[in-house]
């Protein structure tokens, strides 16, 4: 059914299909999400505007924690490129949504993957617009709790450089 909806001639139908793909994957759970189906989700940020509206990226970012939870840290390598692309999205609501849930994704994937993949994104988002960095700052304590004690200690320098206007 999804294949039929994602290739429908109606832009509204295609948008709707991709908007609900994240919740659908979460409902399926890790063992039932085939790599090909997951790839449809992780390719959302690369879809052209002739296929879907740019707002579909917002839904991808909004549902990212649910998809990460459904797949677990074992399948993080299938999600990380999508995550990084969303973190660089030109529309700030997409980046803000990701910043708001960074601590949740970190808790799901664990300290090692967080330190390798999420800390660089967090550092970048902390230099972003106030609309993007404020939600990250609100949950920075929760994010730091997911790091190893050594990494948490080194983050003090980053925190000292943060300024809000």
Descriptive notes:
This protein has a single domain, classed as Leucine-rich Repeat Variant. Helix content is 69%, strand content 0%. The chain has helices spanning 2-6, 11-19, 21-28, 35-42, 56-71, 80-87, 92-100, 102-109, 111-125, 130-138, 140-145, 149-161. The longest helix has 16 residues, at 56-71. The model has no long low-confidence stretch (mean pLDDT 94).
Give a short synopsis of this structure.
The chain has 165 residues and is mostly helical.
Q: What is the secondary structure topology, with strand pairs?
A:
Blueprint: H1 2-6, H2 11-19, H3 21-28, H4 35-42, H5 56-71, H6 80-87, H7 92-100, H8 102-109, H9 111-125, H10 130-138, H11 140-145, H12 149-161
Helix pairs in contact: 3-5, 5-7, 5-8, 7-10, 8-9
Notable characteristics:
globular, Leucine-rich Repeat Variant, 12 helices, 165 residues, mainly alpha
What's the CATH H-level homologous superfamily?
Leucine-rich Repeat Variant
What's the number of domains?
1
**Relative strand content:** under 5%
The DSSP helix count reads 12
Helix and strand composition category: mainly alpha
Q: Main sheet, how many strands, which sense, barrel? A: none
Shape: globular
Helix and strand sequence: HHHHHHHHHHHH
Terminal-residue CA separation: 48 Å
The overall strand count is: 0
Mean pLDDT: 94
Could you estimate the helical fraction of the residues in percent? 55-70%
Instruction: Label the CATH architecture.
Output: Alpha Horseshoe
The stretches of 5 or more residues where confidence is low (pLDDT under 50) are none
* CATH structural fold name: Leucine-rich Repeat Variant
Specify the CATH class: Mainly Alpha
Radius of gyration using CA atoms only: 16 Å
